[in-house]
Amino acid sequence: MGNAFFIDLISYLETVNPLFILAAEIITSYAMVLLIFKYLGKEGLYSYITMAVIIANIQVLKLVPFAALPDPIPLGTVVFVSTYLATEIINEHYGQKEAITAVKLSFLGYLCFVILMALSLAFTPISPDNVGADKITDYTWAFKTQEHLEALFTPAPSILISTLLAFATSQVINVLVFSKLLRLFKNKFLWFRGIIASSIGTLVDNTVFSLCAFYFLAKEPIALGILVSSYVLGVFWLRFGLTLIDMPMLYLSYKFIPTALKKTAENQESK
Fold this sequence. Notes:
By secondary structure, the protein is an all-alpha fold. The protein has one domain (13-270). Helix content is 75%, strand content 1%. Strands 1-2 form a two-stranded antiparallel sheet. Strand 1 (63-64) and strand 2 form a beta hairpin. Helix 3 (77-93) packs antiparallel against helix 4 (96-122).
């Protein structure tokens, strides 16, 4: 009954304008970042970033058509860009060292996820050939599980390598740029620091991933001109629009400061 309800719900949502679904995903992702920061602090944001990177790299396998765009686009952008907000909140409220720690943990978390899923796929799956004939009907639901898991968790080596390189490079650059601007402007102009750091980070991520996955490591490289105009700059404008949403969220994060962090700040001021 539970599965049937979930399937019916998804079927209904598929009839809704995708722009509304996109808006719901944006609101959900950014609300999660703020609430996790409020109640779980930097440790919660460490977990969110790791989780979001894994989710985004699964979502990217699904292409979705939008009426306003000539070609379908892969999902994952909204969730992935929300990691920049989470990293910048850590940087703003805890410092550069903690933000770099977030990047390291999420990188290692995604790498561990890939390795552990590869090991689970290595087990011989259940099939009609290795179960008793009297039990085949009991396990019919499981016979295609391996096939489905392989489709999700066995990306081409070029995609995997490109994802890891792009993520690590862009997140470190985002943290360093944000920290440099923070020192330069002495904690002022938060909106400017956020826009510049996020924009540079997303552009680097998009560029490194696209060039590695579809040009340098691809069996059939895409023409460089098309790659830059469509894959790098085309998706960048969507990501840039999302970085603009980061700005009010960064300011709003001051309303969601955890109690423990407030007390620490108050104690430092009283000394």
